[in-house]
Each structure stands twice: as C-alpha cells, then as structure tokens.
Amino acid sequence: MDLASIIGVVLSVLAICGGHVLEGGHLMSIVQPTAALIVIGGTVGAVLLQYPAPVLKRALTDMKLVFKAQHHDTNQVVESIVSLATKARREGLVAIEQDVDALPDAFMRRGFQLAVDGTEAKSLRAALEMELTHVEEGGEGPAKVWESAGGYSPTIGILGAVLGLIHVMENLSDPSKLGAGIAVAFVATVYGVGAANLVFLPIAGKLKQRRRDEIIVKEMILEGVCAVAEGENPRLIARKLEIFLHERKDGASAQEASASARAV
Q1: 136 and 215 Cβ atoms separated by less than 8 Å
Q2: What is the pLDDT of residues 46-71, one digit of tens each?
Q3: Which residue among 10, 45, 80, 149 has the highest number of C-beta atoms inside a 10 angstrom radius?
Q4: Taking the alpha carbons of 227, 228, 232, 233 in that order, is the dihedral positive or negative?
C-alpha cells in the first residue's frame, strides 16, 4: 500500500473535521444527504455525459494505483539490458534469443525480439516509440476523468447552494424550514469544493505521476534495446541508462531523459 496516499486522505479529513469542531461546530451539521446527492449525483452525471464507457471503466480500475505502491526495479532493468548487450556484442544478437524469451517485462521482450529478428535500428525505434505513444495516450484518459470531476464538483456545489437559497426564499413565512435550507445551501458548497480538492484532483495527480514513472521506465528500455540492436558498447549503454535513473529520481519527464540519453 502507498502509505503517503493513506496518510493524505486521513490527515485532510481529520484536519477539516477537527477544525470545524474546534470552531464550535458539530460534525452532524455538515452531514447533509441532500447536499451530497446534488453534488455527487450531478458530478457523476456530468462525467458520464463527457466520457465513453471504456474510459470511465479504466478510470475506476486505475483507482487502485492511487493506494497501491508501484515498484519498478530499474536497477534490475539496467542489469538485464547490459547483460544482454554484453552477450550480443560477444556472440551476436541471435545468441540472446533464449534469454529474451525469459524476460519478465513484455515491452522489453517485444523490443529485443524485434532486434533479434534483424529489424533495422530506425524501424525498431519507430515501432517501440509508436507503442510507447499508445501507452502514454491510453493512460491520460483516467486522469482526465478525475480532473473533469474536480472541475465539475465545485460548480455543482454552487448550484446546490443556489437551490438551497431558493428553497429558503420560498419558505420565508415558515421559520422552521429556514435552517435546513440554509444548511443545505452552505454544505453543498463545502461538499463540492472539498470533493474536488481532497479527492478528485489529488487522484488525477497521483495517476499522472504513476503513468509518468511507467513511461520513464519504458523510455529507458527503448533506449537500451535500440542501443543493443546498434551494437553499442555495453559500458556506454549502462551510462545512457544511468541518466534515466537520475532523471527518474529527480522527477523529470521521460522526454527529457530520453533526449539526454540520445545525446550521450
């Protein structure tokens, strides 16, 4: 589990609820089913209207990535590529065919299989970059779904506040109904802004980070496979791949790391 995500959720909820109580409020005063129905129902409806079903399903499926820590053993990836490069340089690309079939990473395995089959280096890079672009574009959808939800919910919260005030104005002659109407009005705004900034937008940001880490690893594999196919020195390949390790630690983009590696 991703401990940071869990702590973030707990801390944000405790801070807001705790601050509300310290100011003299009661927790039950912000529990308004009507406001929740307006905000959550309206946000879900808007998102359903904007995105097709496959993208929505992917967004829900990828939610587990927010709380599930991902570990890419990049050092092992580098060791595997350098080992294959050393053997290929000594015995030829055909000699690594059996080793390639045993690789656990599917993207790396497909890349080396193309190299072993004698694919031209330029065509090999183009094929791997096309696959990488497809993976990158496919991963943008789920994050955009949550970003959209984060954009809609505050506005729908304001809509809920207006509806609550309309209800209040309609019942000015009945003071007993004024409190409930005003509560719904203000709580709907709290739900909308809170859901956007504590749930939807953070989820979108975490999914983007997860996808960015995956792309950097795949970019590293791409550069390694192409370097092996071109018969480069294993030490030079190792140096190129170390750039990706440093860039990944620094949080730089895959494109920047790839450009740095090609410049070596």
Answers
A1: yes
A2: 999 999 999 999 999 888 888 876 67
A3: 149
A4: positive
